[in-house]
Structures are given as structure tokens and as C-alpha cells.
Write a structure and sequence with these properties.
Blueprint lengths: L1 H12 L6 E2 L7 H8 L6 E9 L2 E8 L3 E2 L1 H8 L3 E3 L2 H8 L17 E4 L9 E2 L6 E2 L4 H8 L2 E3 L2 E2 L8
Parallel strand pairs: 2-7, 3-6, 6-9
Antiparallel strand pairs: 1-8, 2-3, 2-5, 4-10
């Protein structure tokens, strides 16, 4: 169901983008980078969080870590991770396949500035062995995402 909802999303909103299914799992950043032949930082991981009473999605580069202080400054509350069952309930996607596409109901989607380091990123596509290749700007447009700066850059990232 989840993979199909993502395929349906792209068929409707961006028919030029194909969902890539792999034989091996891409459920973690390292596995996804290996499966798609990209740097781990190019993986666009989607984190399902509770900010106060709201459930939100944060999409960030694969090697970036959520910065609690930046998050609190932006959203006025501490982030709380959802459990695996609640993630599926909210997104219809399994952990490891969570993405901002093909959601059963609209959720606020925020894209971290860390994604802008790359011309193309690889987010999951609703299954632990599916992804798409997309520019960060196009992803933001397709999901009506809001750009934020809520992550710490990886230790080896160039200064911005």
C-alpha cells in the first residue's frame, strides 16, 4: 500500500520521476547510499516527529543530526520521536521507507537546509527497498515543504 501510494503520487504530480526498487534493503542511510551508489550525505532521510501536539516530517541529509536547540528555537518545543507503529499510522510508510510522498493525510513537511548542499538527493519511496532521485528544490515544491535550519552539519562538512 505504502509503495503504491508513492508511485501514485509521482504518477499524478511528477510522471517524469520513477520509483527505483532495489533487491537489497535501503532501510538505513548506509544501506541506501550503497544501494544507490551515492554518498551517505545525499540520502534524504525523513524523520517523523511530534512538535507539541503536531506530527511533522523533517527531511534532512543522511549524515546530519537533528539539533535540539535549533529545533526548539524554530518550533518552540522539544522534538519527540514517534514509535514505529505510530510512524506507520501517520505516514503509511514503514520505518526505513518513510518519505514525504504519498501520505494518507497532509502533514507539515520541513526540509532542512542540509539538503541544499546537493544538486540531487535520494529519499526513500514508501518501502525499505525503494527510493527516488530528485533535486531538493523539486522535492520542496512537490510536497509544499518549508525550508528550515534544524540540523547540525556533519563534522566533515565544509563551512557555509
Amino acid at each position: 500500500m505504502s509503495l503504491q501510494s508513492v508511485k501514485d503520487f509521482f504518477a499524478t504530480h511528477a510522471a517524469d520521476i520513477s520509483v527505483i526498487e532495489t533487491e537489497q534493503s535501503s532501510a538505513t542511510v548506509a544501506l541506501a547510499a550503497e544501494a544507490h551508489g551515492v554518498d551517505p550525505d545525499q540520502i534524504a532521510k525523513t524523520i517523523c516527529l511530534r512538535a507539541g501536539d503536531s506530527v511533522i516530517l523533517i527531511v534532512a541529509s543522511g549524515t546530519s543530526r537533528l539539533d535540539n536547540r535549533k529545533f526548539r528555537d524554530r518550533f518552540g518545543t522539544k522534538p519527540r520521536m514517534l514509535g514505529a507503529e505510530e510512524v506507520v499510522e501517520q505516514t503509511s510508510h514503514p520505518v526505513g521507507g518513510v518519505c514525504p510522498f504519498g501520505l494518507p493525510q497532509p502533514l507539515p513537511i520541513y526540509l532542512d537546509a542540509s539538503l541544499q548542499r546537493h544538486a540531487q538527493v535520494v529519499p526513500a519511496a514508501g518501502a525499505i527497498n525503494a527510493a527516488v532521485r530528485i533535486t531538493p528544490e523539486r522535492m520542496a515544491d512537490l510536497v509544499a515543504g518549508t525550508w528550515v535550519d534544524v540540523c547540525q552539519p556533519p563534522a566533515d562538512a565544509p563551512a557555509q
